[in-house]
């Protein structure tokens, strides 16, 4: 049967004449179309029921692989820099220890207050007020604010501030007010020293 005869038989073919019990006598083009449809159905069903879910699993596995790769790179970077981190940690502990040693303990606070008073008097200032305020608790230390009011000239005030900054213990000066007075300048401020909280 040549091509023209196949096309002619296809034109004369009626779909109602299809008998699945006699599929062997169907014209060749109908058999071919039917086989293509069956193949497409089998292929589509196989993809839908078996392959489609596998694509989702592959995508999930690729995302997981990317996450694991990033975690690995982060950990590898940390491991590569472990010695540097250890050295930094030791340096930080030494620095922290040095700073903590600069915080007075309970027994050293009176001596520190005496040092501040002597610094003021040694700078040539007249003490008008030196009042220890209530403690303020922080994370690992306690603030000890002290109201200070002194009288002196500009150079004496500057010497006092400079000498307080040079004390071996940590003392910070805040809330300065300076006003002119009969004999020089009145300066009022809050000095804060700090005490380490051993239980904090």
Structure commentary:
The protein has 5 helices and 5 strands. It has 200 residues and is of the alpha+beta class. The chain has 2 domains: 80 residues, no CATH class; 94 residues, Alpha-Beta Plaits, CATH 3.30.70. Strands 1, 2, 3, 4 and 5 form a 5-stranded antiparallel β-sheet that branches. A hairpin with a 2-residue loop joins strand 4 and strand 5. Helix 4 packs antiparallel against helix 5.
Q: Which structural traits does this protein have?
A:
200 residues; alpha+beta; Alpha-Beta Plaits; 2 domains; five-stranded antiparallel sheet; 5 strands; 55% helix; 22% strand
CATH class membership of the largest domain: Alpha Beta
Structural class: alpha+beta
In the CATH classification, which architecture of the largest domain applies?
2-Layer Sandwich
Compute the separation of the termini in Å.
101 Å
Mean pLDDT: 80
Could you say which overall geometry the principal axes of the C-alpha atoms support? rod-shaped
Low-confidence stretches: none
Number of helices: 5
Sheet with most strands: 5 strands, antiparallel
CATH homologous superfamily grouping of the largest domain: Ribosomal protein S6/Translation elongation factor EF1B
Topology pattern, helix = H, strand = E: HHHHEEEHEE
């Amino acid at each position: 049967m040549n091509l023209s005869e196949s096309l002619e038989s296809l034109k004369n073919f009626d779909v109602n004449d299809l008998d699945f019990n006699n599929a062997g006598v169907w014209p060749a083009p109908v058999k071919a179309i039917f086989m293509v449809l069956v193949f497409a159905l089998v292929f589509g069903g196989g993809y839908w029921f078996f392959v489609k879910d596998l694509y989702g699993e592959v995508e999930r596995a690729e995302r997981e692989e990317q996450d694991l790769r990033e975690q690995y790179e982060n950990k590898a970077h940390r491991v590569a820099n472990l010695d540097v981190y250890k050295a930094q940690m030791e340096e930080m502990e030494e620095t922290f220890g040095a700073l903590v040693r600069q915080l007075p303990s309970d027994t050293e606070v009176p001596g520190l207050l005496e040092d501040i008073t002597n610094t003021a008097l040694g700078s040539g200032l007249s003490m008008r007020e030196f009042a220890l305020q209530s403690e303020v608790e922080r994370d690992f230390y306690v603030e000890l604010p002290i109201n200070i009011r002194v009288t002196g000239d500009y150079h004496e005030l500057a010497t006092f501030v400079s000498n307080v900054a040079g004390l071996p213990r940590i003392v910070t000066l805040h809330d300065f007010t300076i006003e002119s007075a009969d004999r020089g300048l009145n300066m009022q401020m809050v000095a804060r020293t700090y005490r380490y909280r051993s239980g904090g």
